[in-house]
Amino acid sequence: MKIILHIDTSNNKEIVIGLEIDGKKDERRQVPNHRRGQIVIPMIQSLLADHALQLKDLTAINVHAGPGSFTGLRVGITIANTLGQLLQIPVNGKKVGEPVDAVYA
After folding, report:
1. Closest CA relative to residue 94, chosen from 86, 85, 103
2. Per CATH, the architecture of 3-87 is what?
3. Does residue 67 have a cis peptide bond before it, meaning omega lies within 30 degrees of 0?
4. Of 27, 98, 30, 18, nearest to 58 (Cα)?
């Protein structure tokens, strides 16, 4: 079973956390307060619980990497990279430890 977590914290007006299970999508939206980082993890846990899943069931993570609010992007990317490392699953299609070329605009 393919289970992908989607994280989008780029917008100051709403946080979007989604789950894609074998192609079927479900998502939650919440208006962030000044403690954006403390909202994302409970949203992920709630969405997983609604589908009787745990973090260990995830097979990949997709995170919105920009453009967007610097702080929002930082929160989402940090959570995605941390979960990817801990669970040893790809983030945005990159395997754990795979080098990523920097892009400077």
Report:
1. 85
2. 2-Layer Sandwich (3.30)
3. yes
4. 18
